[in-house]
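Let's practice the habit of predicting before peeking. Look at the sequence and jot down your guess about where helices and strands might fall. Then scroll down.
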Amino acid sequence: MSETSPMQFAHALSRTDDTETAIQEALDSIRQQMGDTPVDLLIITLSFHHAHLADAVANHVLIELNPRATIGTTAGGVIGCDSEVEAEPAIALLAAHLPGVRAHTFTYNDLNWPASSNDPYQLFNNISGPLADEGDLRLAILFADPFSVPMSKMLPAIDRATKGTPIIGGMCSGSMQPKGNRLFIDGRVLNEGAVGVALSGNIRIDTLVSQGCRPVGEPLVITDAQHNLIKTLGNRPVLDVLHDLREDLDESDLALMQEGLLIGRVINEYKQHFGRGDYLIRNVIGIAEDETYIAVSDLLKVGQTVQFHVRDRRTATEDLHLLLDAQKLYGEPAGIFLCTCNGRGEGLFEAPDHEINLIRQRLGDMPLTGMFAAGEIGPIGQRNFVHGFTAAMAMFRPAED
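Done guessing? Here is the structure:
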């Protein structure tokens, strides 16, 4: 196959209970779609039902497709083709032929963490490989075991090393026990750590992070805070601000606020106006007994701008809808990888296959797979974060001439 052949993606999903049969069904489908075209990148997501035979899955993939780069993970739910499979057996594959693109796989051990945490040059080389120029790195896809990887500490260091290269991925959700998850990397299977692939070269990759929220009230500046505690907003006690906010909300928004209040922290303070995608959303996790401060699942500083938010299925649908519509400006993707929260899906939207159907309606019928994660990784502004109740997507397109 000539290196000038076009970019090509293929996807497959098997819901068969038997692992050996399921992976063979998925591989047969990929081979039928790809023909003799070589596979440069393969992403595997499989439900926890198949975790005990993860080594067999890796061997089948290696023998049947011999992909140049492979990563994958176990998950509590698997997304593939036209289905979101939650808590049932499933194996999904996304295969890609990527002419002119370098795919460099790496593991948590390759990152040499934490020794490389203060050496951005070393960390960048470990992620991107010796062939990738600094301006050539397009995206990293990353899966991490939540029991063995300090992702909240590692992501800021990766951002510094790669100058904000987008990362899409998620925390493994296939097990609630240490060493219960499985991670795939080029024919090997790990039970802890992280696996990733850095993509460089002749490709356009757009990312989308839908946090599914809408703001209530007005943006306010933090005037007294310590660590994750907010005491005053706009020089007013934070509980006074919340009292006034409750008075201004209608019944439906007040009910949402009482179910779970969120706060958005502005990422780029230099903007004149703040809108959708400018806030990093975090939970308000408590109110002090003496009602002098609120606790937030984020580290905060005086001078930062924040705004309270609420979330429901209507807002989550609207947010994803608007972000997908913006992507229509760039044409139909060749392929998509999606990580969505295991708290979304049918539990949030009260309907099966809600997000994948919306993606199909807005962007078309391209190859798509993904997973339900225990924390989604994706960029807001020029920085990457671990999110909750979020949908994070990578959309692959040919490079613009």
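How did you do? The first helix runs from residue 19 to 34.
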